[in-house]
């Protein structure tokens, strides 16, 4: 196992390799200022290790934004396991990966992601690593949080509830499917778009789960509101400015997709189902506050959300007071305590002041 930080603003990049079980993997831990790195384990085909490393770095940075804005006591992380492309013992591969994670001594807490399952996490845990998502499914909370974000956006920008609102859901992930069903149950007119395509069908809301919005796409989208249903939606941050110039509001993906992370933290902190649901629903309050502040200042919601994340992380690094959404103060648990094992949730990440 080797660690380096080549061309990466984060703390660690860890490469894991054991040819005996077909393991080639990378773990990226972006910023531990909020606590241990929390993030999923992806498994898939990549042309080479560098491609998997680049994806892990990119998604770890996006996870830091999500966690910091939500006020959760973790840094962003992500790991990628390269599909060996040949028959291997999957359980042995996952267990060996867990042994590498264990050697990080709690710096990374993995859960499942695209290409992995709860059984995989059990196998990773059998290697001695602390894991999440072994018996609890966070994806339903991701979908619920996204619906709360959409309801808040529609209520503020269009007016009213979701009845009759035309919503395009682009993608085929389980989260997108769960979200589409919840939206339809609230009376929305839901259309399903194909993954990895630019959808120009007229709509009130466009939900996108892959990074297909570049400068060209931003010029042709035909929706009032665009919201990301997975991390790192825009090809470049300036694309949000292009959307805004065309009268399209982009709700930052790292704000709307925090429901799963909130649920994972809640389970670790011992919350009951009622509290988990309430904290996930509060994503809608954050989104409305962002939109109100955007109207007041003229800045895009993305710009405001990124400012909040930068302020939170900078102050947390100095063990000072963090900034909740839109700069509202909150008290950071003392570093001598272990917020991961206590309640740990930053207060004003949930009720804006």
UniProtKB/TrEMBL annotation:
One term of GO molecular function: oxidoreductase activity, acting on the CH-NH2 group of donors, NAD or NADP as acceptor
- Every Glutamate/phenylalanine/leucine/valine/L-tryptophan dehydrogenase C-terminal domain range: 136-324
Gene3D superfamilies on file: Leucine Dehydrogenase, chain A, domain 1, NAD(P)-binding Rossmann-like Domain
Q: Which parts of this chain are annotated as the region Disordered?
A: 327-353
Keyword set, alphabetical order: NAD, Oxidoreductase
User: Could you name the domain of life of the organism this protein comes from?
Assistant: Bacteria
| Any one GO biological process | amino acid metabolic process
Q: Which residues form the active site?
A: 78 (proton donor/acceptor)
Family indicated by similarity: Belongs to the Glu/Leu/Phe/Val dehydrogenases family.
Q: Can you say what this protein is called?
A: Leucine dehydrogenase
Originating species: Kutzneria buriramensis
């Amino acid at each position: 196992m080797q660690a380096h930080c080549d061309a990466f603003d984060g703390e660690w990049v860890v490469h894991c390799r054991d040819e005996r079980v077909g393991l080639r993997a990378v773990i990226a831990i972006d910023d531990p200022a909020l606590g241990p790195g929390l993030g999923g384990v992806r498994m898939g085909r990549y042309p080479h290790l560098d491609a998997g490393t680049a994806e892990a770095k990119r998604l770890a940075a996006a996870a830091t934004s999500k966690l910091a804005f939500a006020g959760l006591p973790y840094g962003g992380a992500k790991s990628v396991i390269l599909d060996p492309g040949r028959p291997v013992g999957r359980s042995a591969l996952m267990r060996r990966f867990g042994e590498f994670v264990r050697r990080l001594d709690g710096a990374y807490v993995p859960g499942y992601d695209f290409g992995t399952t709860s059984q995989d996490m059990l196998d990773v845990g059998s290697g001695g690593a602390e894991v999440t998502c072994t018996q609890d499914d966070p994806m339903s909370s991701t979908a619920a949080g996204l619906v709360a974000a959409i309801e808040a956006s529609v209520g503020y920008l269009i007016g009213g509830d979701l009845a009759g609102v035309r919503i395009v859901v682009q993608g085929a992930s389980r989260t997108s499917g769960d979200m589409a069903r919840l939206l339809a149950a609230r009376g929305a007119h839901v259309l399903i778009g194909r993954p990895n395509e630019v959808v120009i069908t007229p709509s009130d809301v466009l939900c996108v789960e892959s990074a297909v919005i570049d400068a060209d796409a931003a010029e042709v989208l035909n929706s009032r509101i665009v919201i990301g249903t997975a991390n790192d939606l825009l090809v470049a941050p300036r694309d949000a400015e292009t959307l805004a110039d065309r009268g399209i509001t982009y709700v930052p993906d790292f704000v709307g997709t925090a429901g799963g992370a909130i649920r994972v933290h809640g389970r670790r902190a011992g919350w009951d189902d009622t509290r988990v649901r309430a904290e996930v629903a509060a994503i809608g309050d954050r989104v409305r506050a962002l939109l109100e502040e955007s109207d007041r200042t003229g800045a895009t919601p993305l710009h405001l959300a990124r400012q909040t994340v930068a302020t939170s992380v900078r102050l947390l690094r100095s063990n000072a007071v963090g900034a909740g959404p839109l700069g509202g103060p909150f008290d950071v648990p003392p570093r001598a305590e272990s917020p991961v094992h206590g309640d740990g949730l930053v207060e004003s990440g949930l009720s804006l002041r």
